[in-house]
Structure formats: C-alpha cells, structure tokens
Amino acid sequence: MIEIKELTQSYQNKVVLKEIDLIIEQNEICALVGSNGAGKSTLIHSMLNLIPVKKGLIKLSGIPHTKEEWKKNVAYLPEKFLLYPHMTGEENMKFFASLGTGPTNEKKVEEILLKVNLWDKRGELIKGYSKGMLQRLGLGIMLYYDSPILVLDEPTSGLDPKGRIEILTILKSLENKTILFSSHHMDEIRQVCSHVAFLEDGKISKFTLNDFYEKYIVGGLL
Length: 222
Known about the structure:
Blueprint: E1 2-11, E2 14-24, E3 29-33, H1 40-47, E4 55-60, E5 63-64, E6 74-77, H2 89-98, H3 106-115, H4 131-144, E7 149-153, H5 161-173, E8 178-182, H6 186-192, E9 195-200, E10 203-208, H7 209-218
Parallel strand pairs: 3-8, 3-9, 6-7, 7-8
Antiparallel strand pairs: 1-2, 1-4, 4-5, 9-10
C-alpha cells in the first residue's frame, strides 16, 4: 500500500505539487498520468526519498519513507536504468542480485530470466541488446527482489510496439503486487491498470480506469 498525504514540492519558488493526497491500495495497479512537466517524476522521486520532501507524509507498506526499512518493500525501475554493457545479461542479473541480503539464488535468477524472455540471450554481452531487451532485463532485476511494491517510471518509453507488448505482458502476469507506473499511452494503461492517478496543475485526482476513460478520453478532455 502507498499512502501520500499533503505532499508539497516546489522548485525556485514554483510550486510543482500542491498538497497531494493519494492512496494506492494493496495489489492495485495504478497509472500515473499527466502532461510533460506536470510533476510525475517529482512525485515518484519524492515518494522514494530521492529528493527531500518539503512538506507532507509518505508511507510505503505502512512505513514512513524517512525510515530505511521501507526500502526492502519497494523496487524501482527508472526510465533510464544503468546496466553494465561489457557484462552479459546473466552477469548483470547476478551482480544486482548480489547487492541484496543473503547469497544469490541461482534458481531464481534462471526463473526471472525465463520470465522476461532473456534466458536464451543470457550469455550475450548486453551492449548488443536492443532497448526492449535492456528494459526487460531491468525489469527482471527489479523482480528478483520480490518486493510487494513496484514503481516504474515510463517503463515502455522509446520502445517499439513489440517491446511495449513484451513489457505489458510481464506486468499483467504479476500477482500480489502493488504497482504504480507513469505512462503516456492510454492503450497500455487500459490493458494493465485498474486505476489512474491524474496529475494536473499540481493537484492529483484518482479514478477507476473506466471513470477516467469516460471523462477524459470519451469526453475529449485529453
């Protein structure tokens, strides 16, 4: 569960987020939608304590984001995920897996690589991977930690239709996950999400998918 109360953020006297209130229930899949510059990345970065929160309260799985304990409950996939190009896909997976607690689970690495359809390419240097393959590898690394909350920032950005379908198929296959992901693509939101959080003029409104579609898409407000 993600809880955000009265979150306010500003840059150089410009208020970007104005007392944001948002609750994403356990096992809910919610899209974060808004125009470029609306503050989607600011909201995500504030939630993950990547930028200091000027005002407000954020809880992740019931733990305030100011406490280190929340990190074991959240996995984050940024729009641009830094991997090691002179290592293979499997080596990248094992390296990031080794950063967690306990020894690397070789069987789990294999299961994840199979899930993201990279097992057959595991021995190839990732400098030869397509952007879609790199994004799937980043998602696989994220899934290895088996966190109950997943946060994805534009996970299909720059991908061709095939790459987008591959990412969406993986997301739809996940169970018992609370997911927040930002996107500009209404078609993929309709495929994956149950709810939409719409950010506009520093304020946020949350809708069921059907209500959002009726008001903003059918109603022509977007």
